[in-house]
Amino acid sequence: MAGRLEQTILDLLDRRGPTASICPSDAARAAYEGDDDGWRALMEPARAAARRLVTAGGVEITQAGRPVEPAEAQGPVRIGRVH
User: Fold this and answer.
1) DSSP codes, 31-73
2) N or C: lower Cβ tally within 10 Å for the chain?
3) Could you tell me the residue ranges of all domains in the chain?
């Protein structure tokens, strides 16, 4: 599932404008195969996938519109391409 979440994040970002961002819940919902709220169990795996993508480069995690270190992020975050 980890690789799938990373690819889902990249696919969602590719579908949006170059300065757009997504919420980890967007990736969790897109990767979940079901009609119930089971996608919520994928929230932390989606955040972990975003952290791995930051390490790999090309993606950043932001809070209040500012890049943050993945280990320091607490609360709601956005995932976007590095500008």
Assistant:
1) H--SSSGGGGGGHHHHHHHHHHHHHHSSEEEEETTEE--GGG-
2) C
3) 2-81
Calculate the alpha carbon distances from 72 to 37, 39, 46, 51 in Å: 28, 24, 16, 11
44: tokens are 């932390």
Please give the CATH number for the structural domain made up of 2-81. Answer: 1.10.10.10
For 14-60, what is each residue's pLDDT tens digit? 999 889 999 999 999 999 988 889 999 999 999 999 999 999 998 99
Q: For residues 81 and 16, is the Cβ–Cβ distance under 8 A?
A: no
Reported as half-sphere exposure (CB side, CA atoms, 13 A), residue 9 has a value of 30
Three-state DSSP state, 17: coil
